[in-house]
């Protein structure tokens, strides 16, 4: 058993007969009344996100998990295949377990969270950012740079990302996996 003081990003808890991962939290101590913790929970079985508030000192049941390094191999319909980095054992995971499946490039290393009681994979932690090549982008029009104008661009995984006007086909860009947004152009 854990309490609200143990809440942190990535903590897996049992709540309402389901397993949730805390993706955001905020400890609030108002001037009047007791303190509480405002959280954003993501269901690891359905992928739904819900907001919940725990009162300070509330007991929560945490789930024992292990993280293992896996390499992403290939997609097959709604299944994504991964290989354990040390044992070479392969597993298949549903698309809805992944946080950003559109940004997953073959050969990418990810961390898979596994429930130690049932040995079932719960979720996949992507790296903070990925570098992908732009496969299609409209040409930027000279003179349209008065503001932070963006245009849609397709990357090699098929995802669509809004990028600045100076990005062209063939450029490699860094993308934040948490928000799916453009970070910077990568020079090689």
TrEMBL record:
Superkingdom of this protein's organism: Bacteria
CC terms in the record's Gene Ontology section: cytosol
Record-annotated Elongation factor P C-terminal domain positions: 130-185
Localization per record: Cytoplasm
Domain Translation elongation factor P/YeiP central: 67-122
Keyword Nucleotide-binding: no
An example molecular function term from Gene Ontology annotations: translation elongation factor activity
Pfam families: EFP, EFP_N, Elong-fact-P_C
Main localization (coarse): cytoplasm
GO biological process, alphabetically ordered: peptide biosynthetic process
UniProt pathway annotation: Protein biosynthesis; polypeptide chain elongation
Alphabetical list of InterPro entries matching this protein: Elong-fact-P_C, NA-bd_OB-fold, Rib_uL2_dom2, Transl_elong_fac_P/YeiP, Transl_elong_KOW-like, Transl_elong_P/YeiP_cen, Transl_elong_P/YeiP_CS, Transl_elongation_fac_P
Keyword Transmembrane: no
Alphabetical UniProt keywords: Cytoplasm, Elongation factor, Protein biosynthesis
Function recorded in the entry: Involved in peptide bond synthesis. Stimulates efficient translation and peptide-bond synthesis on native or reconstituted 70S ribosomes in vitro. Probably functions indirectly by altering the affinity of the ribosome for aminoacyl-tRNA, thus increasing their reactivity as acceptors for peptidyl transferase.
Family statement drawn from the similarity comment of this UniProt entry: Belongs to the elongation factor P family.
The name this protein goes by in its record: Elongation factor P
Organism: Flavobacterium rakeshii
Gene: efp
